[in-house]
Amino acid sequence: MELQVKDTPSGIRTREKVRTKLTRITQRARKDKEAKFCALGHLMYKSTLREAFRRLSRTAALGIDGETKESYEENLAENIDNLYKSLKNNSL
């Protein structure tokens, strides 16, 4: 699993494995069964979204918007930026 660069609000960049981040979320959910994850946007970073895109199968089904991986990739930087902003604003 590749290291991901965190795009932190303070501009400090640290490295963390994607699996490590997911493991922390899983552990929190197991530890506190009543925990509610209402907003996960603060747990996402552009680097994580790019890695998720990279790992997506070329033959993956269309998204709910009908977009293919290939068409999404045409404007990948802009699409990742827009997705990141939507997650941060809880507008998805």
In short:
With 92 residues, this protein is mostly helical. 47% of the residues lie in helices and 7% in strands.
Roughly how many Å is the radius of gyration?
A: 15 Å
| Structural classification | mainly alpha
Overall mean pLDDT? 79
Q: Trace the largest sheet across and list its strands.
A: 1-2
Low-confidence stretches: 8-14
Q: H/E element string?
A: EEHHHH
Strands, total number: 2
The end-to-end distance, rounded to whole angstroms, is 27 Å
- Beta-strand percentage range: 5-15%
Shape verdict: globular
Q: Share of helix among residues? A: 40-55%
Tell me what you see in this structure.
This is RNA-directed DNA polymerase (Reverse transcriptase). It comes from Acetohalobium arabaticum (strain ATCC 49924 / DSM 5501 / Z-7288). This protein is mainly alpha-helical and 92 residues long. The chain has one domain (3-88). Helix content is 47%, strand content 7%. The chain is built from four helices and two strands. The chain has helices at residues 18-31, 46-55, 69-74, 76-88; strands at 3-5, 15-17. It has a two-stranded antiparallel ribbon with strand order 1-2. The protein starts with a strand and ends with a helix. 4% of the residues are buried.
